Amino acid sequence: MGSRHGALAPGTVKPAAETRPERRRKLLIAITLAEIGGAQTCVAQLLPGLSPDFDVVVAAHGPGPLRAAAAEAGARWIELRQVRRPIGPRDLLGFVELVRVIRRERPAIVHAHSSKAGVLARLAAALCRTPVIVFTAHGWAFKAEPGPRSWLYLWADRLAARISSAVVCVSETERREGLAAGTCRADRTLVIRNAVDTTGLPRRGHGERGRPLLVSVGRLKAPKDFDTLLEALGLLDAVDYSALIVGDGPERAELEATAGRLGLLERVVFAGERDDVGAILASADAFVLSSSSEGLPMSILEAMAAELPVVASSVGGVPELVHDGVNGLTVPPRDASALADALRRVLSDHELRRTFGAAGRARAEREFALDRFRSAHVDLYRALLDGSRLQSPARQALDRMGG
Fold first, then answer.
1. Nearest 5°: CA angle at 298, between 213 and 290?
2. Whether pTM exceeds 0.70
3. Is 237 exposed, middle or buried (0-12, 13-18, 19+ CB in 10 A)?
């Protein structure tokens, strides 16, 4: 006869249900917008490596390729309606919306990406007593934003750093600058550099052709600084080239007007947003990025994977990607003359382009592999969950990650 209260009789084998695999912990990834961008590309690349270990939910505002990437990776999508890019009164509604989402989903981990969601989601997760709160800084907003917005982000990130289990920086430069500014803490900060799928992108053949094609990719808004690029292109009168600017943004009309004023409209094409950037890079001869502030640009990684030489401003983590004189050339930011000199050198020398491109592709394959990028995140999440009762990551957990 069975024992009372459902207890097992002596000698009874435990039911199989007790040996079932452990349920996957829920991970909520919050990012401000789903549009095309470097942070969104990083999240999209990360998702396929998370699904085997975590129940993944992605929350973001608006349309964009990230939504399709989430569905393909088996992650659930939550549309954020109140979280937007500009700072304003709507941010309070965005904060309330994120609190409601986190209370409903009850994730074990909230991982915030991008500046706005990076602040709002961390504060909301803290209010909801989420065990693990992670933020990836894809370039610090206090460096990229002008005027009062810079000050607001500086103090918001300082506040959010106090309740973050870990802050991930995409480059060593970003980590140093965050520590100096107080937007992250030494015992809770580590570097996981961005990655690129070298197997999924076409490569440039570097065959000879009469007019080399120069490509730049980015949102047409600061801190990308396409004004300096156009000014530099205007100084290349003696160089035969064509240029393609891929991307859209609020400064497009102004930039097109500048190109017209500089007499560049026969050479420079504004292509808008494209979903075939990989093919465009493979058809080009060189890549340029003239930003005044960066984290670790995905566009440069993709150009390297496409075997293109890179000319870029020496800001943020760019020197960690472009070794000057090895796989490209770096120049000071906002220096149109220096940028023009570097472009002239690359566009005028086919053999230099081939050498730089091959070196960049080799670095991308060797140092920026996707599997390493994904496993570093999974290991970080597991380490933080193991120490989540401490309300902050154990130092040894970050040591295991190289922090």
1. 55
2. yes
3. exposed
All structural domains of the chain, each given as residue ranges with its CATH number in brackets, are 24-195+370-400 (3.40.50.2000), 213-367 (3.40.50.2000)
Q: CB of 160 within 8 A of CB of 152?
A: no
- The residue behind tokens 């600061």 is 222
Distance CA 351, CA 208 (A): 10
pLDDT digits (tens, 9 = 90+) for 58-86: 999 999 899 999 999 999 999 999 998 77
Q: Are 236 and 266 in contact (CB under 8 A)?
A: no
How far is the C-alpha of 346 from the C-alpha of 303, rounded, in Å? 15
| pLDDT tens string 303-317 | 999 999 999 999 999
E strands in 145-240:
166-169, 189-191, 213-217
Give the other-Cβ count within 10 Å of 253's Cβ.
10
Specify whether the CB–CB gap between 236 and 347 falls below 8 A: yes
